[in-house]
Structure formats: structure tokens, C-alpha cells
Amino acid sequence: MIKFDILSASYQDTKNEKYDYAVLPWGATEPHNYHLPYLTDCYLAHGISIEAIEKAYRQAKVKGMALPPIPFGSQNPGQTGLPFCLHARYETQKAILSDIVASLYRQGMDKLIIVNGHGGNSFKNMIRDLAVDYPHFLIAVSNWYAIVPQKEYFDIPGDHADEVETSVLMHYHPELVDLSVAGDGTYKPFKANSLCEGVAWTPRDWSKVSVDTGIGNPHYSTAEKGKKYAEAVTDKLAALFIEISKGDIYQS
Ligand SMILES: [Zn+2]
Fold first, then answer.
1. Residue 103: which residues within 8 A CB-CB, separation 6 or more?
2. Would you say the pTM of this structure is higher than 0.85?
3. 246 alpha-carbon distance from chain centroid
4. Distance 201 CA to ligand 1 centre (A)
5. What are 174-205's pLDDT values in tens digits?
6. H helices then E strands: how many in the chain?
7. 3-state secondary structure (DSSP) of residue 56
8. 166-180: per-residue pLDDT in tens?
């Protein structure tokens, strides 16, 4: 049986296998309200990646390997001071990504898709830099939570430890979710109207916008909602993986 997850694969599984692409789930280590684990963004990006890789194989026999989820995310003020919240600088994240790309390149791999699960992470400029260094290495990034509109699947989607993240984690790892202790995830938007309207962006100070670190009410979460949403998201990602594996993304 082909292994698609480096967390369980051994060299025995990989030594005679040709993989078409690699997937890098990227999360964070940060508080997620009272009811979800610090590594929520890693578990979700990892779960989504594996399901999509398996689908792509079933549909088109293309083989992908999910790399270990990266737990170092870019954090907002107000989160960074909370216990065990880990903030990784742009330079740190770029160094990690660069070393992963260099490793894969040495091995003859030339396709990598980052499946990002943390809203504070941003990889576009790193990928542009790497495209200069490795012109024939295709690197793409997908924010899994933004692929499919959330409103069609959830009652009140928010944006952190909300009904979306809670439901999808209940689908993949029900043992890690204790909804009975969840806070309401009440969110106070900026007073400055220009910032609410998106005239400019500045990182939100988490201690001023949330009480329990959550943004969005998680109380209507169910594993069933999470399963349906993950199904829709992984359909899209599987199609992406198949197209990227084939390599011809441009018109002639
Ligand atoms: Zn999260």
C-alpha cells in the first residue's frame, strides 16, 4: 500500500516509489479558545492534505507525500504574550521553507504545495524569491479555509477557533475537542471605521478584540458539518494536485 503521510511512512515505503509532488501543511502553535488544542492549525492542515492526496491518487493515480506539519506561525500582538504561543518571524519561516525546497530539489522533486491553515501566515513573497532561485521548481500555496465559501456550510463562521475550525477538527480528531468548555468567541471589531472598511490593514491586538482568544462562536459546531466542508475543500485540492502533477499549467 502506498504511503502518503511522512508521519507514518518509512524508507521501506519510499525507496522504490516515485512521488509526483510534495505537500507541506503549515500551521501555528497558539491558543484556540478554551476547547481546541494549540496545534489546531497543524492538525487541520495535515488532515485536509492527507484526504486530498488520497483523493488525487484514487482519481488520477498521481502520488503525493505530505511532509510534517510546520508548527511555527506568524502571530498577532496580544496572542504572542500568552503562554506557549510561538511567534515565528518572516525570516524564520523563509529559512524553513528554503531548506525544505533545497532538500526536495536535491532529491529530484520539483513540485510543492503549501496547505496553509493559519491566517497570519503569508508565503507569496517567499515563493517569488524561491522562483528566482529555483526557476523549474513549482511552489504553490493554498489557504484551505478560503477555498470554499464557508457560509454555505456553517451557521456563523468566524475566523479563529470558530465553528469552521471546531467542526473540521471534530471530524478529523473528535478526541481533541471539548465543546463543553468553549468560550463564546465574542469579537470586538476596530472602533476605527477605516480599518473595519479595509482602507488599511494593521494586525489586530488579540487582547483587545477577543476575551477567550476565539473569534467566532463555536457552539453550533458538529463533526457532520466539518466532514461536509472538508469533503468540498479536498475535492478542490485534489483537482489542484492532479493539475500540478501533470505539470502543464500554462496554455501553449
Ligand atoms: Zn486556527
1. none
2. yes
3. 23
4. 20
5. 999 999 999 999 999 999 999 999 999 999 99
6. 8, 4
7. helix
8. 999 999 999 999 999
